[in-house]
Amino acid sequence: MTDKKPLYILNGPNLNRLGKREPEIYGTTTLAEVEAMCRTAAGDRPVVFHQTNSEERLIDLVHEAIDEGAGIIVNPAAFTFTSMALLDALKMFAGPIIEYHISNIHRREPIYHRSYVSMTATTVMAGLGALGYPVAVQAIERLIAEGRR
To answer: Which residue numbers mark the site Transition state stabilizer (predicted)?
Structure first.
């Protein structure tokens, strides 16, 4: 058993439909496959992996991470562009935060170009598809090791 604090990987609305929803944009990898890739990439670091369609639940999970977590990788999905409450919750987190998007939001319609989460994220990753999640896990491990926020 490790004494490392867990990495929180939080996913917002409709990501439970990965593999079925708009595969031309989001690919065919399922969320269960994403979770398995993240756990493998994390090695001995514990992973708390959640998906929710509820803004309230997502904020509660950020609060849990504030108390228990070493880093957050968050794919807030539509809440990226609408939730000041999520922004406020993430601002309280002392560790690194990676905002992750499966698609390149900047190549999409203008409504997808303004992220509230980016205002507090340590870094933003977008456009690598589902395979970018384990890349984000590797990146956040480095940010944690460097003590970055």
So the answer is: 21
Q: What is the pLDDT of residue 76?
A: 97
Would 132 be classed as within a structural domain?
yes
Q: What is the DSSP letter of 74?
A: E
Catalytic residue among 100, 101, 116, 133: 101
pTM over 0.70: yes
User: Is 1 a member of any domain?
Assistant: no
**101 is a catalytic site residue:** yes
Ranges of the chain with pLDDT below 70: 1-2
Which residues is 123 bridged to in the sheet? 98
* Residue-level pLDDT at 2: 57
What is the distance between the alpha carbons of residues 79 and 81, in angstroms, rounded to a whole number?
A: 5
State the total domains in the chain. 1
In a domain, 86, yes or no: yes
